[in-house]
Amino acid sequence: MEEHMHQQLEADDPVTRRECYLHRQVIERRVGSVERDIFEMRADIKSMKENMEKFFDSQEDRWVKLWYFLIVIALLVAAGRVFDIDKLMGLV
Question: Does pTM surpass 0.85?
Fold first, then answer.
């Protein structure tokens, strides 16, 4: 089985500036891409939240309009029945 590169190096071997720089660059790429991904995800979540709030607000408005419509229909039906009863009472 192959040994890892870290196992081949001695702990006391000196590290060049170039190796440090490359190591820092690799870490920055990894961490930087994660930070950008997190920022993009936060922006996506924020926009989804705003869209959901708009959707639920519009749904709530629809329910309110539906209730008004049903109340008006119920009042019209009740008024129609009252007038029908008055006609029936007049005929008898």
Answer: no
Distance CA 45, CA 52 (A): 10
CA 16 to chain CA mean position, Å: 48
Q: Which residue has the higher pLDDT, 11 or 30?
A: 30
Structure tokens, 27: 């870490």
Q: Quick one: which H or E segment has residue 82?
A: helix 17-91
The per-residue b/e assignment along 43-65, b for 16 or more CB within 10 angstroms, e otherwise, is: eeeeeeeeeeeeeeeeeeeeeee
Task: Provide long-range contacts, Cβ within 8 A and 24+ apart, for 78-87.
Answer: none
Question: Within 10 A of 27 (CB to CB), how many other CB atoms are there?
Answer: 10
